[in-house]
Each structure stands twice: as C-alpha cells, then as structure tokens.
Design brief:
CstA, mainly alpha, Amino acid/polyamine transporter I, transmembrane, transmembrane helix, 19 helices, 486 residues, CstA_N, 75% helix
C-alpha cells in the first residue's frame, strides 16, 4: 500500500515541479491560437480550459490506462516505477510538446509536424503510422467496450447489436462539429470516469487491499523479461503515441497557450493516476497465475468486471464498469475523428461540407468493421508497437523543435532514445515482427538507435542553419483583429 500511495503522490509532485519546468523550457506566448485564427465552426472552435482538459483526458484515456496496467500487473510492483517515471518524464513531455507545437502551427497533426521538422520522407512515414494506429485504436475501442457491455448484461443483448450502436455513435462523433456531441456529452462521461476511478482507488485504500510493495526481490520478476515488454504493455498510463494524434484536436480549441500545461501535461498525469489504480487492483486481487487465467479466459474486460464487483459490490461495480466503458468509447470516437482530419490535411480536402467528411470517414469504418473479426490480443500487440513507435517520432519532433529553438531538447530526446531502443528491440524479437533471438535483437536495436540519433543531430544542425520557421505567421490575422487598447 505504501508504494501505491507514494507513487500517486509522486505523480502529483511531478506535475507541480517538472511540469512547470517543461512549460518554462517551451515558453508559452500571449498570441492568438488556431481556435481563432482558423475558426471554421467544425474543428476550430474555442472552448474553455475545463472543457478542453476533460475532453483531452477522455480522448487519451481509452482502455489503455486500464487494460494495459492490468496486463502489466503480471510484472508486479515494478510496473509502478514505469508508470510514475514514464508519465512525468516521458508521457507528460510528449503530450505537452505535441499539443503546444501543434498550437504554434495552425493545429497541425503529427504527420504535418514530422514533415516540417524531420523532413518530407518522415511526413509520409508518419501518415502511414498514424492512420494505422488510429484505425487499430478505433477498432480496439469498439471491441473492448462492446465486450464489457455484453458481459454486464449477461449476454442478454446480442454482441453484434452493441457493436452496431457503438459504430453509429462513432460515425456521428466523427462527422459532426466538435461542440455538438463531444463538447456537450463529455462532461457527463467525465463524471462517470471520475466516479469509477475514485471508487476503485478509494476501495483499495479503505479495504486495506494487499497491494504488493516494491522490493529488491520483486524488482525483476522471475522468467519475465521487463525490457522491452513492460514498456509496450503499459503505454497509455505512462507514454503513448496515440496521445500525439489526440492533442491536435484540442490544440484547435485551446483559447490561450498558457492553458497548455493543465490541458496536456496535467491530463497525462491524471491518466497515470488511473493507470496506477488499475495496476494496483490487478496486483492486489489476483495472484499472477489467477490473473493469467482470467486474461486467457476473457481478456482484460473480465478482469475489469471482477475488480469492480469485488471492490464495490453489484451496484457500485456496475457504475464503475460503466465508467470504464466510457473511456474507450470517448477515445474511439476521437481516434476516427483524428484519422479524418489527418487524411483531410494530407490531401488538402476542406472539411466544411459534411459530404467531404463522409468521403473520408466511411472507408475507415468499413476497414474497422473488418478488423473487429481479428482476435483482440493480436490487435493489441500490433497496437502496442505502432503506438510506442508513434511516441518515438513525436518525441523526436519535440526534440527537433527545441533544438532549433536553442532550448533544452534533452527533455524530449532522452525518453525518445529510450523508447526507440525498446520498440526496435520488440519488433526484432517479437513473433509479429522478425522473430530474432533476444541477444541479436538487442544488438540490432543498439545499432539502429545510435544510427537514427546520429541522423537526428545531423538534420537538427542543418535545420537550425536553415532557420525553419517554428510557428505559423499570424501577422495578417493580428492586423485584421487588433487588440483594443485599455
């Protein structure tokens, strides 16, 4: 219990200290944001800090900070270390920089930012990665809540019918202006999320749940390789490239740059706390063998149901499960919305007319429906690798921006290098990748990481000499909208 409580306290301290430092390094400005300079009534709509923060949290906190930590609980208390350090020094930095750099560049999505700061080749690479990730996320976040609802209703409603309802909601949320559905319903969804997290976390503390403490003996679980698997299994609660696809949605609705730390860094810390709660619940209620059996029998959805009903009883457990169901739904809808926006930006297709939005969105949903037929565990493995690979690219974009700005780029580059090593090792060793022996995978990952980091420095020095513009020119907007003198 002490390790669990101290970990949550450290996350809060990290927001108050390192979060402020990251904000100071970046340096927010008092300049008009894309919500005003590119206002279109669809995607560019000014909204206040509370609403943006809540939407950002619901966008990024899908099943990742619940399902990932539940599976990560198999590693024991060492998972707490990754959640704390990852959220503070990697995830928070990643989310803040992608959000703020997007604000400086007309709300641009990651592929456009990668093209600007890492070269046109990377723009095409990141487009593929981002769309792959988003379609996988959207599909996973259809299947997961559908399974939870199906279990909650004891199979009385057909799973196919539940899937159709979720897809119908996703289509509306993808096509309609952001303030029509997402802006209106997310406050209600947010209440369920908060109640769910407080209920499970409070239950763990009040009932004195036997949460294992971190010791030298369990720092490295027997027969379970921590690197790289732990760092891909637990992603959304510590570091997630999916967030880089979501932050630009809110960068287009943020009123002032000074609100960025609360919206981007702060909500990553909040997600880390959610991940801590579910990892602790998985460790305290189930032994490693029992947890493995439940995961094999019905996946993380079954574990969620067991935890909720055990900790809170039938009624409270149902409310908690509903809160968990809301999480993936409120990330799946924005996953498809982000994919639509990325494709629209890439092919320069205006989104003011709904027919143009439909032209992009419908093929994505057809592909996603086909992917729901694939086993969840297989989808999750591909999602985990694509997710963390996207995070690496986003961190290198952030490091490049800070390098050109002559600011402390190491805050982004160090976690970027670490995760590049982890993701490369994984794909070289995994069965879904090259299936090489682990020692060969380590060597290949080291060579790849050193080579790509060297390429980064060469490109960064060239970019600094070229004086690539770091932000959108808004002088014409300021001339047309002068600030009245007081």
């Amino acid at each position: 219990m002490i390790t669990f409580i101290v970990s949550i306290i450290l996350l809060v301290i990290g927001y108050l200290t390192y979060g402020k430092y990251v904000e100071r390094v970046f340096g927010p400005k008092d300049r008009p944001t894309p919500a005003y300079t590119s206002s279109d009534g669809v995607d560019y709509v000014p909204m206040d800090t509370k609403k943006n923060s809540l939407i950002q949290l619901l966008n990024i906190a899908g099943v990742g900070p619940i399902f990932g930590p539940i599976m990560g609980a198999l590693y024991g208390p060492v998972a707490f270390i990754w959640i704390v350090l990852g959220a503070i020094f990697a995830g928070g930095v990643h989310d803040y920089l992608t959000g703020m750099i997007s604000i400086r560049n007309r709300g641009a999505h990651l592929p456009e930012l990668a093209g600007k700061f890492l070269g046109n080749v990377m723009k095409h690479v990141v487009n593929v990665f981002s769309l792959l990730l988003l379609v996988l996320v959207g599909t996973v976040f259809v299947s997961a809540p559908a399974d939870l609802l199906y279990n909650l209703m004891d199979g009385k409603v057909a799973l196919t019918f539940i899937l159709v309802l979720i897809f119908a909601y996703y289509i509306l949320a993808t096509l309609l202006p952001i303030d029509k559905i997402i802006g209106r319903f997310y406050p209600v969804f947010g209440m369920l999320l908060v109640i769910s997290a407080i209920g499970i976390g409070g239950g763990l503390i009040l009932k004195g749940a036997p949460i294992p403490e971190l010791t030298l003996q369990n720092l490295h679980p027997d027969n379970i390789p921590i690197f790289p698997l732990l760092f891909l299994t637990i992603s959304c609660g510590a570091l997630s490239g999916f967030h880089a696809t979501q932050s630009p949605i809110i960068s287009r609705t943020t009123e002032k740059e000074g609100q960025g730390r609360k919206i981007f860094y702060g909500m990553m810390i909040a997600e880390g706390i959610i991940a801590m709660i579910w990892a602790a619940a998985g460790m305290s209620l189930f032994s490693g063998d029992k947890l493995n059996e439940l995961l094999a029998a019905g996946g993380p959805a079954v574990v969620v149901s067991e935890v909720a009903t055990t900790m809170l009883g039938a009624v409270g457990g149902t409310i908690a499960i509903l809160g968990v169901i809301i999480l993936p739904i409120t990330s799946g809808d924005t996953a498809f919305r982000s994919a639509r926006m990325i494709i629209a930006d890439y092919f320069k297709i205006g989104q003011a007319k709904i027919s143009k939005r439909l032209m992009i969105a419908l093929p994505m949903f057809v592909i996603s429906i086909a992917l729901t037929q694939i086993d969840f565990n297989i989808l999750w493995r591909y999602f985990s690798w694509a997710n963390q690979s996207t995070a690496v690219i986003a961190l290198y974009v952030g490091a490049m921006y800070l390098f050109i700005s002559r600011k402390n780029y190491w805050i982004a580059l160090i976690p970027g290098i670490f995760m590049l090593m982890a993701t490369t090792t994984y794909i070289l060793n995994a069965k879904i990748g090259f299936n090489l022996p682990m020692n060969i995978s380590y060597i290949g990952a080291v060579i790849t990481t050193i080579t790509l980091t060297a390429v980064f420095f060469v490109g960064a020095k060239q970019a600094r000499q070229k004086e690539i513009p770091l932000e959108e020119d808004i002088s014409q907007y300021e001339k047309a909208h002068p600030v009245p003198e007081v």
